[in-house]
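Sequence dictates fold. Next comes a concrete instance:
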Amino acid sequence: MSAVFFHRMRSLFSIALVLLVVLMITVEASMKKKEKAKEAKADAECSEWQYGKCVPNSGDCGAGIREATCNEQTKKTKCKVPCNWKKDFGADCKYKFGRWAECDTTTGTRSRSGQLKKALFNAECQTTIKVSKPCTPKTPKPKGGEKKKGKGKEN
């Protein structure tokens, strides 16, 4: 009789433990849902969010955080700073560029200009910008019949 009693108690304890875990998961999910609803309500109340620049988590590019303020509210959102030449004028300013100009032999660079297409997150962007890059020397390609010689000693 005592073995049956312990078996029933163990089963009852197991069921109670499972129910407790399910209850905890349900309460946690409900709390997260309420927090998201509060954030959505705060976003709806404020129409003039002011966004700061995206600040990389490490280094000068990559994943980062952008802070936004409205009245007395502050929120942080995830963002990304591109790791390429565009970082001179910011990731939040999108431009439409023309063709690259011919190489300027005095400076050794070629340039092109861009017109502002879109300013993200209320960013302050220049309406027109000019970017430049080094000229690339044009090397003639070998003709079809010629083969490149490999590295190493010649016989």
